Amino acid sequence: MTTDRGAIEDAVAELNQALRSHGGGVEWIGTTEQGALRLRMIGMCAGCGFRPVSTAATIRPFFRERLDMAVEVEGARISAEAEQRLAQALAPGYHRAGLRPLTGKEE
Q1: Closest by CA position to 62, among listed 6, 23, 100
Q2: Long-range interactions of 1-4: CB distance < 8 A, separation 24+
Q3: CA–CA distance, 36 with 29 (Å, rounded to integer)
Q4: What tens digit of pLDDT does each residue of 5-62 get?
Q5: How far is C-alpha 70 from the chain's CA centre?
Q6: E strand or H helix at 39
Q7: Does the first or last residue of the chain, that is N or C, have fewer Cβ atoms within 10 Å of its Cβ?
Q8: What is the pLDDT of residue 97?
């Protein structure tokens, strides 16, 4: 896990390059006491119905791979349990992409 502000800002900027194609992005709003990134969806991502899929399939795996950090997204629309089931269902795609799947509770 990194606490380097520059590395976090660079990773957020990199992810936002991809999310901009959907008219949105994420904003880093802080870090929890446990060291998880606190993010907020912005732009079109804030009201998108696919927000839970983006969180489980893109945002969490991205920051886990880049920074080895857990992520809390402000205003989650589904329960942590439902998001975990979604992540498990998407796990085969993570393997094909060379990413580590989210199979247990994030630390």
Answers
A1: 100
A2: 1/35, 1/67, 1/68, 1/69, 2/67, 2/68, 2/69, 3/31, 3/35
A3: 11
A4: 999 999 999 999 999 988 999 999 999 999 999 999 999 888 888 888 888 888 988 9
A5: 8
A6: strand 37-43
A7: C
A8: 58
